[in-house]
Amino acid sequence: MKKELLVVTGTVMDESVQFSLVELCECAKTTREQVFEMVEEGILEPEGASIHTWRFDTRALKRVQIAIRLQHDLGVNLPGSALVLDLLEEMETLRRQMRDF
Length: 101
Known about the structure:
Elements: E1 18-19, H1 21-28, H2 32-41, E2 56-57, H3 58-74, H4 78-100
Antiparallel strand pairs: 1-2
Helix pairs in contact: 3-4
């Protein structure tokens, strides 16, 4: 009987960490164009007045990663990804409220 080994890796990040556009693209393994489209769709809300001064937090990195997985694994378009991400965050908020209740 052959046993399968599943190896899961990850990086723990401080929530105060901020990324530039280039750093976000590197961490998320995505392109600037995809990030621009996600900003236009409302998936990401960068801090900063211009593209050159944009800063993204760890929440943005998580949203990019989830949106990319939704697109690649399930074929969800960007508007659909924005909706799914908002619903997931709402569910998490409700779960927290229920735990605190």
